[in-house]
Amino acid sequence: MVANNLPQLGYEYVLMDDCWHAPSRNSTTGAPVADPNKFPNGIKDLSDKIHAMGLKFGIYSDAGTMTCGGRFGSLGFEQIDAQTYADWGVDYLKYDNCYNEGLSGTPQISHERYANMSRALNATGRPILYSMCNWGEDGPWNFAQTIANSWRISGDIMDNFGRFDDRCPCTSIIDCKLAGYHCAMSRIIDFAAPVGQKAGAGHWNDLDMLEIGNGGMSFDEYVTHFSMWSLLKSPLILGNDVTNMVRE
C-alpha cells in the first residue's frame, strides 16, 4: 500500500478478514487468541508494525457462535473481545453474521445483537470503526445508524458486471428474505438505489468490497463499478491483490 502511494489516495486501513484465530479461546480468561502458526508474535505485534507505517489496522469477528470460516465467534463474548481488540490497537472491526443462533428475523432482534458489540467497543474508550456485515438482513439501513459506522446491504459481491446467479436470488433488497451471495455488481447497485438516502456523515451503506483488477469485468465495467460505489457513498475497500496492481 505504501509503495503504491495508496495512503495519499485515502486508503489508510489494512483489514484482516476471517481465520486469523487459534482453534480456541484462552482456556483461562476466554480472551480471543491468534493462530500461533500464522502470527507467532501475536496480533499486537502486527498492529504495531502497521501503525509504524502510518496506517490503521482492522480485524474481523462474527456476531455468532462461529465465524463464517468456522473459528470462534464473538456472540456472548462481546466485552472481552472488544477490550482485547482495543488492547491490540485495533482501529476497525468487521462484524459478520454467520452462526447467529437464529437471533435474526426482525429489526429489533438484529439491532440488539449488533448493539451489544457496539456498546462493548464504546466502553473500551478506543475509537474503533464498526462495520456491520449482516448482509442486509432485517433492513440495517433502518436501525444501524446509531450503533455502527457502516452496514452491508446485500450478500457477497462477485467479480461480474451483470450475470444472474441463483445464489443471489433477490431482485429487491427491501423485501429480500435470502441475501445469498455471488451478487453481480449491477444487482448490488439496484439494491442500493432505494436506500441511498439512509447514508450520511459517519454512517454508510456498504456495497461490499471493490473487485477492480480481479479480472472478471472489462476496464469500462470496473470504472463504472468504482464510480457507482463512490456515488452511492459506499466504503471503498480494495478487494484485489494490492501487491500486483497496475497504474490504471
From TrEMBL:
Keywords, sorted A to Z: Disulfide bond, Glycosidase, Hydrolase, Signal
Q: What is one process in the GO biological process aspect for this record?
A: melibiose catabolic process
This chain belongs to the protein called Alpha-galactosidase
Protein family according to the UniProt entry: Belongs to the glycosyl hydrolase 27 family.
Q: Which GO terms describe its molecular function?
A: alpha-galactosidase activity
Enzyme Commission no: 3.2.1.22
Whose protein is this, by species? Answer: Hermanssonia centrifuga
What does it catalyze? Hydrolysis of terminal, non-reducing alpha-D-galactose residues in alpha-D-galactosides, including galactose oligosaccharides, galactomannans and galactolipids
**Alphabetical list of InterPro entries matching this protein:** Aldolase_TIM, GH, Glyco_hydro_27, Glyco_hydro_27/36_CS
